[in-house]
Amino acid sequence: MGRQVCIASAGFSEHASKRSDVSMPELVSEAIKDCLKNAPSIEINDIDMFVNGNMPAFEGANIPELWMTDWMGARNKPLMRVTTGGTTGGSVAIAGYYSVASGLPGVDTVLAIAFEQQSQGDTATGLASVAYGEISVLNSLGIPYDQLTLLFSAGAAIGVASYQATNYMRKSKTTEEDLARVVVQNRHNAAKTWWAHLKMPNLTIEEVLDTPYISYPLRYGMVCPASDGACAMLFTTEEKAKDMCDIPVYVNGVGSIATETGILGYCGSGSGQLDPSEQLGAQKTSDVAFQQAGISFPRKEIDYAEVYSPFPNQELMWVEKLGLFEENTASEMYETGVTALNGELPINCSGGVNSTNAIGASAMERPAVAALQIMGKASNQVPETVHTSLGHGWGGYINLITMMVMADEPARKFK
Amino acid sequence: MSKLTRRKSMEYIKKEYVRTRTMPASWYLSSYKFKYNITHMEPMREKLKQKKLVGLQCSSCNRVFFPPRIVCGKCMVKPDRWVDLRETGRVATFTIAYIKDPETGEVQERPIVCAQLDGSDTSYPTQLNPDIEFKDTYVGMPIKVHWAENSEGGLMDIQYYDVTEDKAQDLELRKD
User: Fold this and answer.
1) Structural domain that includes position A233
2) Inside any domain, residue B163
3) What's the whole-model pTM score?
4) What is the percent of chain A where pLDDT is above 70?
């Protein structure tokens, strides 16, 4: 049995499409400073171990953790890098959790850092480097390259999301207006968050529906931006966390589960996930994490949720698959205001990935915001007291889900 | 300018940052040799030359893979049984891509579908008959293989998929 782990603090850098004033190490440094500002009693020298990660090859720089060691304050300290594609942030947070939970001597306080500076590099090249090997198999099976580019011109992350969107919209009878409503809620929330990227306080549903399609049924106005930004989280033991902050956030359950790859599949062999919006991995992950946290009725027991939703249809999909709402009812909840800031179950009050997407950092910003909401230090704070919250991440070959369930008290083991 | 190509910038609260030095750089990545085993696909390619469709079945869980796979992920078993597939199938999922012609600048709307053949349990991305109106595509649409004139023993022997008439009135996935 591992040690009980707590989150003592979390911090962000400012996010923008082009952070032209800072380099990558300076961006990371900004997030760490903000993280340590929230826990004034400790300094950078008190941290025992560092875990970090970003999406490989997106900035055109490999092994960035080694040349930014001094900017992180990681000199002569244990350092580890984790990258798992879109869920990098979630995996980094989980690695930070396990580093503390394992109870190694001398490792009590762990700083987890995730970052991305997309304006430096070419995201399309980065994504192509992930999928090119698989796509070239189809080439050898007799599909010429120009045909392949046609097939995958809807490609990259938005291609996958639009497949999910068509299936989800058909099953749940969701309209494009419902999708636009999710976007409007997110962008309005982002306007109240100091570090968010797309702050649009006056956006309306009509404005979103007026933009052209990128890939049916997703429009230009519904899609997440590409941001520069970094996020840092401080994991520590229960005893130390009580000294560091007023309300320590207990990490009660983590999950990280992958299922079969979607759409293209391994070596171009197709996918067994006939319905990309089914997401068995998400259902399994939430089962595992809720079981660890002793939560039987997520709908009633979770007070706040941050889900990874670059596209609005995914936000509707995830809240259902994670057990927060009944199947096919999420769009009603957005319409009636259950998910708004002062609603029954607020969702993505930071604006979500829909408003700020620094790919490597995004999946970590979800548990970080969820933890800050429990501490009462979030930038767009929910008026009601938050006792339990969750942060969720999605990525990999559209098949890896990470999740972290947090509360202001230790997990109830027998229930 | 047509509505499809117009990129209307949406207003948001923007903060100006000081511009420091930027060094443009390009990075030549070497050529790579991706290695994979396609010997398990040879029987399928032989059959495709005769305009016949076969899938590979896992002997443990009885799932049929088209295109074939080396290993069944559920059972960690090497599938080894070849089964015949029908030429009909259905659209498992689809999207519409907006492709800009680099020469003329016109935007084409092309449906891209994931097709599941009857008798198989997997879907793979492919394309529909270009004559089909893209607005008519829907999930669960019944389709049929259209063979290419010259068969070369590859997946391109299936040139595209035609739409067939759906006579099943009580089909759950019928278009609303």
Assistant:
1) 6-121+229-407
2) yes
3) 0.91
4) 93
B7 to chain A: which residues are within 8 Å by CB? 212, 220
User: Which residues on A lie below 8 Å from B34 (Cβ)?
Assistant: 132-133, 136-137
Interface pTM (ipTM) of the complex? Answer: 0.84
B contacts of A268 (beta carbons < 8 Å): 67, 124
**Nearest-CA neighbor of A9 among A235, A229, A238?**
A235
Query: A1 lies in a domain?
Result: no
Q: Which residue of A has its CA nearest to B172?
A: A171
Give the pLDDT band (50/70/90) at residue B170: very low
Query: Hey, of A163, A199, A275, which one would you mutate to test binding to chain B, going by the most B CBs within 10 A of its CB?
Result: A163
Residue in chain A closest to B101 (alpha carbons) equals A150
| A380/A398 Cα distance (integer angstroms) | 30
DSSP string covering B127-141, please?
Answer: EB-TTS-GGG--TT-
Domain hosting residue B122, numbered range: 39-168
User: Number of structural domains, chain B?
Assistant: 1
pLDDT of residue B1: 42
- Does position A15 have pLDDT exceeding 50, yes or no? yes
pLDDT at residue B168, as a whole number? 55
Q: Which among A211, A215, A260 is the nearest to B73, CB-wise?
A: A260
- Give residues with Cβ within 8 angstroms of A84, minimum separation 6: A53, A90, A91, A395, A396, A400, A402
Chain B CA closest to residue A214:
B98
Q: What is the CATH number of the domain that holds A280?
A: 3.40.47.10
The three-state secondary structure class of B66 is coil
